[in-house]
Amino acid sequence: MTILTEKKLFIFDFDGVIADSVDVKTEAFARLYSEFGKSVVQKVVDFHLQNGGMSRFDKIRHFHGELLGEKVTDQLVQDWASHFAEMVVDGVVAAEEIQGVRKILDYCHANRIRCAVNSATPESEVVEIVKRRGLSDDFEIVLGSPQSKVKNITAILKAFGTNPSDAVFFGDAVNDYKAAKLANIDFVGINYNSESEESFPAFKNFDEFLDKYFYSFASE
Q: Is residue 95 packed enough to be buried (19+ CB in 10 Å), middle (13-18) or exposed (0-12)?
């Protein structure tokens, strides 16, 4: 592992890492499937929480195919994903920042560390959210689904001409960790709640991360 203070590229997941918006999406999935009853809603919520970093499209395919036993078509997935998007965008825009986000972005700017977003949210949607939150100047690249997080990491590295050893991915879910591992870059857990058999640095928020690795900056 390259020492974290020597990294040249910081890649961030969005929900749960930049914005405290996981609950917004949990509530939206619960509302979306409320017509199927409390038992289904609970299974939907449990699956959503256990599979952070998975795209809504894959979750919807699972819910209708495995949970409801329906025939899953691309049109069905698109229709349900559109309803979901209508419920969540304003909520994600309004969500609180994860503690220390402004400090870490200011640190990156001051030290010429390049920043990118790698989200499972549809790309056009996460670009809009970043813009509406006033963060467009902080991230040179914002990528989302339908490309996988692994492919997005590879694309970001290529666009910046950065070696994998010089990059780190900040995520809040096991799927984020797996994407980083497959892309051969380091991983730091932020607001990380999933269980993992492998060890990596993990913190409640960016204030804790800065206190650990960049104390002089965080205490200014």
A: buried
**CB distance 100 to 207 below 8 Å:** yes
pTM: 0.84
State the residue for tokens 């989302």: 144
The candidate with the shortest Cα–Cα distance to 4, out of 167, 118, 195, is 167
- Sheet with 186-190, side-by-side order of all strands: 141-145, 114-122, 9-12, 167-171, 186-190, 202-203
Q: What is the pLDDT of residues 66-113, one digit of tens each?
A: 999 999 999 999 999 999 999 999 999 999 999 999 999 999 999 999
11 DSSP assignment: E
Query: Dihedral, CA atoms, 74, 54, 102, 21, nearest 10 degrees?
Result: 80
Query: How far is CA 32 from its chain centroid?
Result: 21
What structural domains and CATH numbers belong to the chain? 4-20+97-218 (3.40.50.1000), 22-94 (1.10.150)
> For the chain, what is the radius of gyration of the CA atoms?
17
Which residue type is seen at 158? K
Task: Characterise 161 by phi-psi region: left (phi > 0), alpha (psi -120 to 50), beta (else).
Answer: left
